[in-house]
Design brief:
This protein is α/β, with parallel strands linked by helices. It has three domains: 271 residues, TIM Barrel (Alpha-Beta Barrel), CATH 3.20.20; 88 residues, Orthogonal Bundle (Recoverin, domain 1); 124 residues, Double Stranded RNA Binding Domain (2-Layer Sandwich), CATH 3.30.160.270. It is built from 17 helices and 16 strands. An eight-stranded parallel beta barrel has the order 1-2-3-4-5-6-7-8, surrounded by eight helices. Strand 7, helix 8 and strand 8 form a beta-alpha-beta unit. Helix 3 packs parallel to helix 5, helix 7 crosses helix 8 and helix 11 crosses helix 12. The longest helix is centred in the C-terminal third of the chain and has 22 residues. The C terminus is likely disordered. Bound molecules: 3-methyl-2-oxobutanoic acid and zinc ion. The site of 3-methyl-2-oxobutanoic acid has 10 residues, from strand 5 and strand 6.
C-alpha cells in the first residue's frame, strides 16, 4: 500500500484519525482478536484514513501484540499507540509501534479537577510534571507525538492550557482536546479549541475527540473544524466508550456534502469504501448498524412514501443529498410498503420484467395495497408471487372474495364464514371443517354451489419471517375437469380460499364459454 495519508498542517485538509481499534474497541462487549484487528486496519488503510490508533499497548499482552502486528503489516496510514504518561507505558508503546512505516505516540493525562482528585490522586503540579516527562520520553522516540488532556471540556481552561503549553514545549506536535464524557455543546467546544490556539504558543495541529453521550459528537467535531481544528478523531459506525465516538462516515460526508459551508475543507477518505468498512466492522464486532444510521445504515438511501418515491424516480436529488454510490451503497432503494404509490410500484415491476398498464396494473396494485397493509415490506419474491397470482388469473371474476372469518383451536370446531361477490351480489356462507382451511373451502363450495374434489394442495412460504406470504397452489376437480388455482396472502387460510376461488372461477369460465378445459388447465397457464 502506498503512503497516501497526510498528517502535515494544511488549511484545506482535515486529518482523519481513526480510533475504531482503540476507543471503538473499548465499547462494552467488543473484543477483537489480533487477526480481526489486522483485517480492520487493512480496510482502514484502503479507506484512506491518515492515522490508525491501533490500540493501547500497555493494557494487555494481547493489545500489545495486535498493535505490533498492525505496525508490521499495514502500510499507508501513520500507526499510533496510546500511552499514559508513565515512562514504562511510553516505552512499551514505542516497542509496539516501532516497526511501522510511520509512527505516533499518543500520550494522555487527565486535567479536570474531578479526574485529578478522584482518579489520578495527583496534584495539578504532579500532572504538569507527568505531562512533561511523558511527552519528552515519547519525543525521544519519534517526531510525531500527540498529547491529550483527558476530560478537557470539564477542565479549568487556564490550567489545561498550562499543561498543553508544557506538552508543546516538550515536543508534542498534535494537541487533542477530548470531550471525554460527551459534555460539550458545539459552539462552546469549538471556542475552547480556538482559544487554545490563541493561548498555547507553538507549531501544532489542534485535534477533536468527541464522545456522543448527548448525541453531539459529530456536531461538536464539525464546529471545531469550522474554528480551526485540523484533525478529527472518530470511529467507524461511531463505536467507542459508552455512547461512542464521533462517527467517521458522518464527519467525512458532512464535510464533503456541505463543502459550501465548510469552505472546501476535505479529507483524504475514499468514500466509496465507507459502506464496506462499516459492514466489516459491524460483522467483526457483532455490533449491528442501526437501520436508519446516517450514511451507512441500510435505510440511508431507502424511500418508502409514494411522494418521495415519485420524486426520486424522476430525479434522485429531490430526496437525496448524497449519491449512494459515493459511499459504497449502490443505488437508491425503493422500498415497497403500504405508503408506496402506483408510480414506484409500476417502476419496480418494470425492472423485474413485468410491464403492466391500465386495468392489469390497477388490479395488481389493488392487491399489493391490501397485502402491504399487513406486511411491512414486500420483497421482489413477494411481488413475483403477487403478479403470478393476479396476472395468471385470466378468468373473468365470477366470484371474488369480500371477506373471510375463520375460527379454530384445539377445543372448538373450526368454522369459517365467507362473503363473496357474484355479479355485484353478496353471498354469504358458513361451514365447519376438520381445520380452518377445510372450513373455508367448505364455505366457498356452499356459497358458489360448486361441488367437487380438492385433489392437490401445497402451501409454500414466499419469503422468511412470521409475516411471510403464503403461496397456495391447488387443483380442484369438477365432473372430470381438474383446474389449478393459486392464492396468496399473509394468512394461510385466506391464501387457500383465494386459491380455491381462482380454480372455481376457471371452472365457471369453461362452463360459460364452452372452451377446451385442457387449454385453461395445462401446466404453466397460471403465469
Ligand atoms: O475520551 C478520551 O478522553 C480518550 C483519551 C484517551 C483521548 O479517549
Ligand atoms: Zn475517548
Amino acid at each position: 500500500m502506498s503512503s497516501t495519508s497526510d498528517t502535515t498542517a494544511n488549511n484545506d485538509r482535515v486529518i482523519i484519525f481513526d480510533t475504531t481499534l482503540r476507543d471503538g474497541e473499548q465499547s462494552p462487549g467488543i473484543s477483537l482478536d489480533q487477526g480481526e484487528k489486522v483485517e480492520i486496519a487493512e480496510q482502514l488503510a484502503r479507506l484512506g484514513v491518515d492515522v490508525i490508533e491501533a490500540g493501547f499497548p500497555i493494557a494487555s499482552q494481547g493489545d500489545f501484540e495486535s498493535v505490533q502486528a498492525i505496525a508490521k503489516s499495514v502500510r499507508g496510514p501513520v500507526i499510533c499507540g496510546l500511552s499514559r504518561t508513565a515512562l514504562g507505558d511510553v516505552d512499551r508503546c514505542w516497542e509496539a509501534i516501532e516497526s511501522a512505516e510511520r509512527r505516533r505516540i499518543h500520550v494522555f493525562i487527565a486535567t479536570s479537577e474531578t479526574h485529578m482528585k478522584h482518579k489520578l490522586r495527583m496534584t495539578p503540579d504532579q500532572v504538569k510534571a507527568e505531562a512533561a516527562s511523558g511527552v519528552a520520553r515519547a519525543r525521544s522516540y519519534t517526531e510525531d507525538v500527540e498529547f491529550s488532556p483527558e476530560d478537557a471540556s470539564r477542565s479549568d481552561f487556564d490550567f489545561m492550557c498550562e499543561v498543553l503549553q508544557i506538552a508543546v514545549d516538550n515536543g508534542a506536535t498534535t494537541l487533542n482536546i477530548p470531550d471525554t464524557v460527551g459534555f460539550a455543546v458545539p459552539q462552546e467546544y469549538a471556542e475552547r479549541l480556538a482559544n487554545v490556539r490563541k493561548v498555547v504558543k507553538g507549531d501544532y495541529i489542534i485535534s477533536t475527540h468527541c464522545h456522543n453521550d448527548l448525541g453531539m459528537a459529530v456536531a461538536n467535531s464539525l464546529a471545531a473544524v469550522q474554528l480551526g481544528a485540523r484533525q478529527v478523531e472518530c470511529a467507524i459506525n461511531g463505536l467507542g466508550e459508552r455512547a461512542g465516538n464521533a462517527a467517521l462516515e458522518e464527519i467525512v460526508m458532512a464535510l464533503r456534502t456541505r463543502s459550501d459551508y465548510f469552505g472546501g475543507i476535505d479529507t483524504g477518505i475514499k468514500s466509496e469504501e465507507l459502506a464496506r468498512t462499516s459492514r466489516l466492522v459491524s460483522r467483526l464486532t457483532a455490533y449491528p448498524v442501526q437501520y436508519n444510521k446516517a450514511v451507512v445504515g441500510r435505510n440511508a438511501f431507502a424511500h418508502e412514501s409514494g411522494i418521495h418515491q415519485h420524486g426520486v424516480l424522476n430525479e434522485r436529488t429531490t430526496y437525496e443529498i448524497m449519491d449512494p454510490a459515493a459511499v459504497g451503497q449502490g443505488e437508491s432503494k425503493i422500498v415497497l410498503g403500504k405508503h408506496s404509490g402506483r408510480h414506484a410500484f409500476a417502476d419496480t415491476l418494470k425492472k423485474m420484467g413485468y410491464d403492466l398498464h391500465g386495468d392489469a396494473l390497477n388490479q395488481v396494485f389493488a392487491r399489493f395495497k391490501e397485502l402491504a397493509d399487513r406486511k411491512v415490506e414486500l420483497s421482489d419474491a413477494d411481488l413475483e408471487a403477487l403478479v403470478a397470482e393476479e396476472m395468471g388469473d385470466t378468468v373473468r371474476y365470477a366470484f371474488s372474495l369480500v371477506s373471510l372469518d375463520s375460527h379454530g383451536g384445539s377445543s372448538s370446531t373450526p368454522t369459517a364464514t365467507i362473503v363473496l361477490d357474484h355479479d355485484g351480489k353478496k353471498i354469504e356462507a358458513t361451514a365447519a371443517g376438520s381445520g380452518m382451511v377445510d372450513a373455508a373451502c367448505a364455505a366457498i363450495r356452499q356459497a358458489t354451489g360448486i361441488e367437487g374434489t380438492l385433489t392437490d394442495y401445497a402451501v409454500t412460504s414466499v419469503t422468511g419471517g412470521v409475516d411471510a406470504l403464503a403461496d397456495v397452489a391447488l387443483r380442484f376437480e369438477v365432473d372430470g375437469v381438474s383446474m389449478p388455482g393459486r392464492g396468496l396472502s399473509t394468512d394461510v387460510v385466506e391464501a387457500s380460499a383465494r386459491a380455491l376461488l381462482n380454480a372455481l372461477n376457471r371452472i365457471v369460465r369453461v362452463r360459460d364459454t364452452g372452451e377446451d378445459p385442457t387449454a385453461v388447465s395445462r401446466p404453466g397457464s397460471l403465469s
